[in-house]
Amino acid sequence: MTNIDYLIIGGGVYGAGLAWELARQGREVLLLEANTIASGASGGLGQRGVRANGRDIRELPLMRRAYELWPDLAERIGGETGYARVGGLHLIERDRELVSAPAQVWTQERFGIPTRLVERAELHHWEPGLSEAVMAAIFCPKDGVADHTATTRSLAQAASNLGAQIREGCRVERIEVSGGRIVGVITSAGERIAVGQDVILCANGGATDLLAGLGVGGGIRLPVWQRLPQVMLTEPVAHVPMTRLVGHAHRRLSIKAGPGGRVMISGGWLGRVDPASGLPVAVASEVQGNLAEAVAVYPGLAGVGIEEVSADRWESQAIDGIPIIDRIPGVENGLFATAWAGHGWAIAPAVVELLADWVMAGDQPDLLRPFSLGRFGASI
Ligand SMILES: Cc1cc2nc3c(=O)[nH]c(=O)nc-3n(C[C@H](O)[C@H](O)[C@H](O)COP(=O)(O)OP(=O)(O)OC[C@H]3O[C@@H](n4cnc5c(N)ncnc54)[C@H](O)[C@@H]3O)c2cc1C
């Protein structure tokens, strides 16, 4: 394996997206994926929300750029993304959230995210299936949805069409460091792959293990853990009660129209690992809890059957709920990006563009500075 400029570990939207960005700029790229493209958080049931509404303030500049990139991404990569700009509502049921809503509208507007408060009458005219308890909503017309599995596969295909080498079923067990540089990686098959310029770790939760096992300063530990976000698809309903991407100010709820007259329900409810099988499984109380939140907001969903539940895609989360994107400490030729906390999808096109600039030019882009490891102190 010679003439590789960049080695990317992980074939989710970040690894595949970065491979495409680098390949289209004429770089030689090798991407190693432990399983198959989109077998992690970037694949699976339903669609992902492409949302600025309610996002951490430090992510808003990334989302503003992502808004520019999503609409013609399919055309640029010559493949499907399933992107649709349906608009996003952040529902408000309590005075305490109504009071802070103008500040959220102001902040999002200030960061270039078109946002406005929609009052009760207009909101219920738009979404007649909403509970009377919903008193207002923060509306972002540029929010939307995308087909994550299709997009990730399209990005990988586009990268491959431009000459990027993609190897599936190739798990990196260990990163080899010598003289302050990454010099190679060892795969689970025992193969050693030499590294040319840089290694970019886009392995989501897998990054944590690889960094912990790094032969630098006894390994690098991050304030990060893994979780299994739950997604559910109802059976087809007579009337899908929402046309937009819907989130909520205080309920753990994200809800959108699904395929074939179904409704997709999520919002941060979690699966767990079954101790007997060691495999991820859904938890009945989490399914019921998520459904109850959906019915509280859309009473017409009462009694609806759940056709499919999935809680088998690991997602990493940092203690402060925003990503960690930085150089790998102690080596001069490594970067990593992880801890997307269940909202890494929407910003991906903007982040991979910046990551590509970073690896090629060597300078940390300003928009990525808030996500540095340094925010946790100097000793990591
Ligand atoms: C159920 C669910 C719902 C979500 N909803 C939204 C949403 O509505 N909006 C939003 O913005 N975000 C959402 N997200 C978050 C978003 O999907 C993720 O943040 C994003 O897909 C992460 O992409 P990634 O490429 O970093 O990780 P992944 O897609 O997990 O890819 C990492 C890849 O690395 C591979 N890998 C791991 N270790 C190794 C190794 N040692 N060697 C080789 N390969 C390795 C894995 O097999 C995997 O394929 C959701 C996530 C989940 C799970």
Notes on the structure:
The model has no long low-confidence stretch (mean pLDDT 96). The protein is α+β, with helices and mostly antiparallel strands and 380 residues long. The chain has helices spanning 13-24, 60-69, 73-77, 95-110, 120-126, 148-161, 205-212, 284-297, 348-361, and strands at residues 6-9, 29-32, 48-50, 88-92, 116-119, 136-140, 144-146, 165-167, 172-178, 181-187, 192-194, 198-201, 224-227, 231-234, 245-248, 254-257, 263-266, 272-273, 280-281, 306-310, 315-318, 324-327, 334-338. The strands form 6 sheets. It has an 8-stranded mixed β-sheet, sandwiched between helices. Strands 8-2-1-12-23-22 form a 6-stranded mixed β-sheet, sandwiched between helices. A 3-stranded antiparallel β-sheet has the order 9-10-11, with no helix packed on it. The site of flavin-adenine dinucleotide (FAD) has 36 residues, from helix 1, strand 3 and helix 7. Flavin-adenine dinucleotide binds at residues 9-15, 32-35, 39-42, 48-49, 148, 171-172, 202-204, 206, 210, 229, 231, 266, 313, 315, 340, 342-346.
Compose a concise summary of this entry:
This protein has 380 residues and is α+β, with helices and mostly antiparallel strands. It has nine helices and 23 strands. A hairpin with a 2-residue loop joins β9 and β10.
